[in-house]
Amino acid sequence: MTGNYLLSGFGPRIPIKISMTGSVDTEIKSEFISQGINQTLHRVYVNFNCDMAVVTPMKKIQSKCSKSIYYCRTCYCWKYSECVL
User: SS3 letters for the chain?
Assistant: First the structure.
């Protein structure tokens, strides 16, 4: 509470009830990237957005976090023609 950790752990034990709440939103992102002649790279990501809160009798602490996790990658290759225009 004071931000001073020098005397943390000392003193009498005081029981405090703490509850945590939160929610998670997910979004799937897909993108196609050209990789050269007749090649395409397909990437899939999952984006997570978290809202968290810790509630004590004296204080409420809220936090938000976002994370993007790489899920898979596939390279599509096709045959190219024998002639050049």
Answer: CCCCCCCCCCCCCCCCCCEEEEEEEEEEEEEEEEEECCEEEEEEEEEEEEEEEEECCCCEEEEEEEEEEEEEEEEEECCCCCCCC
